[in-house]
Amino acid sequence: MWAWLEPHDRYWRRISSKMHSHLHTKDNVGCEEIMNALDECHARGFLYKAVGGCNDIKREVNRCLSGERQKKSRKNRETGMERRARIEAVWDKMDEGDYSALERFTKRE
């Protein structure tokens, strides 16, 4: 009767092997297991999703991805602060009249 809701439908498998393929990257390897669990939950069918059967797993995925994003942001912030410190050191030397630091800095980058 409700054949179109079957989770093992051939059409469903053909549509997508991974729901959010842009999230299945090397940066989110720690979240891979949870994302696969969400994919399996969604494969159970529309009604299961509609009544909130996958909400807990979705919250776990969001929490995991948020943690990964925060790690990446922290790393980028530290890299930026180091870069800024190097630039300011070059500017200080330039204020003293030593432009050789600028040449070394540009060759380093």
From TrEMBL:
Q: Which UniProt keywords apply?
A: Chaperone, Disulfide bond, Membrane, Mitochondrion, Mitochondrion inner membrane
Instruction: State where the protein is found.
Output: Mitochondrion inner membrane
Family matches, as Pfam families? Cmc1 (PF08583)
Chief location category: mitochondrion
What's any one GO cellular component for it? mitochondrial inner membrane
Q: InterPro entries per the record?
A: Cyt_c_biogenesis_Cmc1-like (IPR013892)
Give the similarity note.
Belongs to the CMC family.
Function recorded in the entry = Required for mitochondrial cytochrome c oxidase (COX) assembly and respiration.
Q: What is this protein called?
A: COX assembly mitochondrial protein
